[in-house]
């Protein structure tokens, strides 16, 4: 059995093992102390400590916000399902049973899917899909099938086949939805995908509205980035193309996904492009499309340098859009004089300094940024690649000198080309020439030299990057902080690729490919809702640890054979009592775990 304990993250050994009061610990105190909930687990001969959650303490305002959000999320979920699904035992009566024949059956994971259902109802997706896909003659409502797909993607990402044949019957979603495992099969899940896709824009609009209600978000700043995800198997739809693979799978066809999120990483919308689409060609369509759906207002668009082209910048200016965008590193040479000057640089972080430069026409501001950590990293990369090229060229020179027969000059040049391509970070630092030399047995001669001007510029520009913007009211620190928030879009892609397993795609029909991505988008909406929830409750920022811990809360059937009849039995569906760590998480989230579920009445054996 694992052991749980709470340790102070400060150097306070005597508090190890002491559980602080969850909400009252900071009252009357000035020093907010973070805590870490740790589980001791034996792995072979070793006992290691796994962090279950970070327990940051909350001040009075934080407690009020966390309580309000928990009430908003949990209260409505209780109204929708508690009365129909859960049994409080108020009708209990005494009955004699055979203790020697009591048994436990159908143990199923309950906590994570129950939490997923709470999130689904908190976003009012049940109401949305009941309206979009009203129940007809089908035995299982399409709204329920879609919720199964999305909650499954959140809790245990897998294929539709795995959901139908294994995952669903090992979870307690049957008790929450009333859908029997035999009613859920692969083809039904595929048909649900077909019905889901036409409602993509309505879903996005609904989520934007609901996020604003729950978390008081503003949409003045939109972060935009593009990623790719690849296919396994034979895929031939029109959108499956080979292109630049961010997954390092150039052998597979792929699609590109353009995602727009808020400054908090909450998803606003996305579009899908063929896998060979370049990033710069998506900007006009995405910006125009999102503003057509959600309004133009006074939004500021934040994009990385992969989206930048002369045409895109001109279009953004002409149409009056505001932007903060990265700029290709080649643009740095334009500001070489300002970089060399040590005046007007300002430290805005311990390792970051910035300098504002106005464009000649005055309608844009360029922000030169130098990161000390990036200086060290880029210098190490330059030195490493330079050493590799130097070593390989020295070896090639010796080979040419020692050769006793003519060498193919074209082959030698191709070898040098491949060497420079593999070490492109330092390729510009060398001047290499191959000339004919009839006096030597090899028939050729190689010479090389270092380029001092390249080395000087590399040392000057290491750790530098440049931003451009037409926002005039913000300070240099606000502009830099805004651009750095692009990490929220990058984090969204990481979550979808790792925690939600958007890749690889196995579908072959274009509609189902797009529907698969929409399911992942909905699962990410649940993920971010949980992240906001746990963050406001002082539980860190990693939903996967919460979901993993909750998945260990099981529901099971206790079967009680009746004493007065050998052919009758009583079946009680119970939720296993949570362990110490799970209890702490439940309390922080403001959740009340049901003890019993509705079960069939006394049955024949």
Automatic annotation (TrEMBL):
Domain annotation Transposase IS4-like: ranges: 220-526
Xref: InterPro entries: IS1634_transpos, RNaseH-like_sf, Transposase_11
GO biological process, alphabetically ordered: DNA transposition
GO MF annotation terms: DNA binding; transposase activity
Source species, domain of life: Bacteria
Name the UniProt record assigns to this protein: IS1634 family transposase
